[in-house]
Amino acid sequence: MLVAAVGDVHGRFFRVEEWIDALEQSRGERVAAVLCVGDVETFATPDDHRRKATKRSMPAEFAAYATGEREMSRPFYFVGGNNESFEELDLMPDGGELAPKVTYLGRAGSQVIEGVRVGYLSGIYAPTRYLRPRVPACNAETNKQAGYFRKDDVDVACAIAGADLLLLHEWPRGIAGTESAVAVVGARGIRRAHWPQVGNPYAALLVTRLRPPWVLCGHIHVPHAATLYWDNGATTRVACLDQATRSDGGLLWMNVDGPTVREVGWGTSGEVAWREGDPWDERQSAARIRIAGRGEY
């Protein structure tokens, strides 16, 4: 079974569908489901996008799906990021369908998707809001706060049992590597000295508690690959995705056999970057591949 994952969409639904079409052609098989790590921006009308979107220069393409003008050709599941249509998502904390085949998973929990148990935590960490109660999303300030997860969300996520894959928006603290540091310095204005502190400690806590075989995340717009090794001999492979501007870092595909990932690749070419039993580290990162000679980052 072929499963695709995309980074921060920021409204670029048409582009994502084109990428999936190209991937299917390259691999010669249909994508069973698309997973997204947040910042999707499911604004129901272009006016909503202009009025409420944080990044108003992004496209408002979801409106075509909300009105029925277009329909997603594959099931699309996403966690919330920190740039979303929060006034709608706030009404469905446990998730729900926003358009045919477009499903918001919810704030925290798990769901079986095509035989794979997917755990998830929406949002990013804000120290000043973590222990505060959530307020209804109804204006610019409360919409911003809606993009932060709370302690209750983390508690729910930590209680997940048997997750095969974990979807996060923000990186777990402690997985940043040197090659991604090379890629991000200048592009994001993060000094190399600060790079090890990228990510948040509660996402790291969640990964440590669950120890899932795979973790997918986004938010920073830098592709990265890392493996965490546990004291019982188990491993967790982390794939961080770029935003949906370049397919070679913003699209990841997995060849899944039951709940087990057998092969992984970046982009639409269908080329395998990792096979079961291989190491998963910066050598398999799309950022490293670019630095190694496939184009400037």
Q: CATH homologous superfamily, by name?
A: Metallo-dependent phosphatases
**Distance N terminus to C terminus?**
31 Å
What is the residue-averaged pLDDT? 89
Give, in order, the helices and strands. EHEHHEHEEEEHHEHHEEEHEEEH
Radius of gyration: 18 Å
Describe it.
This protein has 297 residues and is α/β, with parallel strands linked by helices. The protein has one domain (2-294): Purple Acid Phosphatase, chain A, domain 2 (4-Layer Sandwich). The chain has helices spanning 13-27, 46-52, 62-66, 86-89, 140-146, 151-158, 178-184, 201-210, 247-250, 286-294; strands at residues 2-6, 31-36, 76-78, 96-99, 102-104, 108-113, 116-121, 165-168, 214-217, 224-229, 235-240, 251-257, 260-266, 274-275. It has an 8-stranded mixed sheet. A 6-stranded mixed sheet has the order 6-7-8-9-11-10. It starts with a strand and ends with a helix. Residues 291-297 have low confidence and may be disordered.
